[in-house]
Design brief:
The chain is of the alpha+beta class and 95 residues long. It folds into 2 domains: 39 residues; 44 residues, HU Protein, Chain A (Irregular), CATH 4.10.520. It has 3 helices and 5 strands; from the N terminus they run H-H-E-E-E-E-E-H. It has a 3-stranded antiparallel beta sheet. The protein has a two-stranded antiparallel sheet with strand order 3-4. A hairpin with a 3-residue loop joins strand 1 and strand 2.
Length: 95
């Protein structure tokens, strides 16, 4: 599911809201989550999972085409850990 599909589905399920209102709400939620992660915080959605930021140190990599060594700068990357309820729902059919 992509953002536009989420907005369309929420608007369909909530006919009292306009598509613009739903789009604005989804945008604000995602913006606040991004801001929290930018500030080094953590975003936890109970039953779904938690988003956090992890640091990756600088390292030496390789150019896959030429095989030449390339230096890769240190960076911060988003990390998602699924919640227990989400894992259980995803694995309910396999039991």
């Amino acid at each position: 599911m992509i953002k536009s599909e989420l907005i369309a589905r929420l608007a369909e399920e909530n006919p009292h809201l306009t598509q613009k209102d739903v789009e604005r709400v989804v945008g604000v939620i995602l913006d606040r989550m991004t801001e929290s992660l930018e500030q080094g915080g953590r975003v936890e959605l109970r039953g779904f999972g938690a988003f956090s930021v992890r640091s990756r140190p600088a390292r030496n990599g390789r150019n896959p085409r030429t095989g030449e060594p390339v230096s890769v700068k240190a960076k911060h990357v988003p990390f998602f850990k699924s919640g227990k309820e989400l894992r259980e729902r995803l694995n309910a059919d396999s039991e």
